[in-house]
Amino acid sequence: MADIYRDADLETTALAAWRKMALVGGITSIALGLVLLIWPEQTLLVIAALFGIWLVILGVTRLAGAATDRDNGTGARVLEGVLGLALVILGIVCLAHLIGSLKALAVLIGLIWIFAGLVEIASVFTRRMGGWQRVGTFVFGAVSIVGGLVVLLWPKLSLTTLVWLTGLWLIMLGVVQLILAWRASSAQRPIAAR
Fold this sequence. Notes:
Keywords: Membrane, Transmembrane, Transmembrane helix. The chain has one domain. It has helices at 2-38, 40-68, 74-96, 98-126, 131-153, 155-193.
């Protein structure tokens, strides 16, 4: 009999913890989604700043690796140091010119999507696959190429649209998390009554 009570207590405790996490996650997701929808341009600037900071941190890490790595030869360490210095400089340039770094980020995203689409289309001709899989892969590749071209042609609009879609997605995710928190609370009552 004691095992039944212990199992019920564990289940109630787990549901309570899960409910709290879902509740906090839901509120946070909705708040972040609203921030993205209300201030999309400022969000893009924050993303550009984070991108620049990431480049600086990555560069400093490479410089530190070049200075402390004794396993590689001098030539490899020099190359790693040059790469680190280039990343630091690129990060500082991005931080100094946030709008320009956003455009560069959009170009990078566009080129990656185009390349990914070309790889998908090439795989249609190089891999063995059935009819529907072949059609689906080709369509996915074509959509990726078109998406990449759209991002390249209209970078600001594309990035703003991505921010808006992310904001809407976060709000929907938050609502689902709140519903799950409410359901967990409802499920907790019968277990506590046992």
